[in-house]
Amino acid sequence: MTSRADQREATAAAFVSEARALFAREGYAAVPPARIVEAVGRTKGALYHHFGSKLGLFRAVVEQVQREVGARVAAAAEQHTDPWDQLVAGCEAFVAAGADPDVRRIMLVDAPAVLGWAEWRAMDEASSGRLLAEVLTELVEEGTLEPQPVEPLVRLLSGAMNEAALWLAEQGGEGDLEAVTAALRRLLDPLRVRPGGPTR
């Protein structure tokens, strides 16, 4: 027997799933609440009960997409044991995620405009930004990066990768992904302190 809590969870999940598909395909502004309600087979009252508004539902969709991107980044990094290799793999995974239509439209295009830059940045920092800060801190502590405040470096790299992911999504070509990956490696490599030699 399905409990009321399970029913509420299933309804909320259905709203997020249907709204995500619509937002990714058409964009936030083009999707009225009635379209979402119709797709889910519920009432507007149910939407507002679970999320407060269309904006609240969009926020839940963005959170889901960002969690998924964060999981991709973490999974790519965990394929390596060396922290530097983890950094490079995680950065490459984040940039490559821009090829996903959901990520491009929802996380990179609509989210900053709809939620506002400050809220979008806070959400980004809580997901992939947190992982980036952790590995950069480890690299500084072990001497692979020069001693330095980590926060400015997190901001610079995160900004560059967000822009690259958006550009890559707009281009949509495998060759562009290879070019971006190569450029990313050239950007990161001079930060690394080589044992027995100067930074290059």
From TrEMBL:
Residues 9-69 form the HTH tetR-type domain. The keyword Transcription applies. Keywords: DNA-binding, Transcription, Transcription regulation. It comes from the Bacteria. Residues 32-51 bind DNA. Transmembrane segments: none annotated. SUPFAM superfamilies: Homeodomain-like (SSF46689). InterPro entries: Homeodomain-like_sf (IPR009057), HTH-type_TetR-like_transc_reg (IPR050109), HTH_TetR (IPR001647), Rv0078-like_C (IPR049484). It holds the Pfam family TetR_C_41. This is TetR/AcrR family transcriptional regulator.
